[in-house]
Amino acid sequence: MKLMIVSDIHGSYDDFKRVMDIYEEEQVDKLILLGDLLYHGPRNPLPEGYQPKKVIQLLNQYKDKIIAVRGNCDAEVDQMVLEFPMRSDYIEMYIDQHRFFLTHGHLYDETHLPMLQQGDVFMYGHFHKPALKKENGIIFFNPSSISLPKAGEKSFGIYENGELKIVSLGKKCLQSMKI
How many other CB atoms sit within 10 Å of the CB of residue 64? Predict the structure, then answer.
């Protein structure tokens, strides 16, 4: 199974459209969204290509492929326009004998972890900074933001065949790790 992991779209249609073009080119099976889908929030500038209504339309085209968690900029009213569930604070998935704990990062983060065990993968966004590391047997993965990165390039994640990657919008692999 090939997964694409995207966080912190913040309503940027241009960046999200680029990611979904890559999704199609790479024949990805599922799209994991780690929150902050439509709005930029009061602390962030407007991202380039800010068009939340167009992002809604594009997201809804992939509703049967999306697994999503709620971010701190996501509101209850967003669920009224999105045709897939996105209000959970976290989701657990089991893939290739690993537990993947998906969350946005504003409730759980590296300093406030849920109950995890060795071999688990903690996936989060929120900070707009890429992270791919293993500490105490736990893999930490943050794909950064596709619209408003605070460190490095605009990027997303890919998981396939036991390997996690952080990939730029230009399709350059920035980091990778076998888990």
Answer: 8
C-alpha 22/C-alpha 42 separation (Å) is 30
- CB-based contacts of 121: which residues, under 8 Å, 6+ apart? 98, 99, 100, 101, 138, 139, 141, 164, 179
What was the pLDDT predicted at 93?
97
Cα four-point dihedral sign 97, 98, 99, 102 = negative
Task: Tell me the per-residue pLDDT of 10-58, one tens digit each, with 9 for 90 and over.
Answer: 999 999 999 999 999 999 999 999 999 999 888 888 898 999 999 999 9
Are 103 and 34 within 8 A, CB to CB?
yes
* Domain coordinates in residue numbering, the chain: 3-178
Helix or strand run (H / E) with residue 54: helix 52-61
Q: First CA to last CA across the chain, in angstroms?
A: 15
Give residue for tokens 């409730």.
107
Within a 13 Å sphere around the CA of 75, how many CA atoms are in the beta-carbon half?
9
The architecture that CATH gives domain 3-178 is: 4-Layer Sandwich (3.60)
What one-letter code names the amino acid at 80?
Answer: M
pTM over 0.70: yes
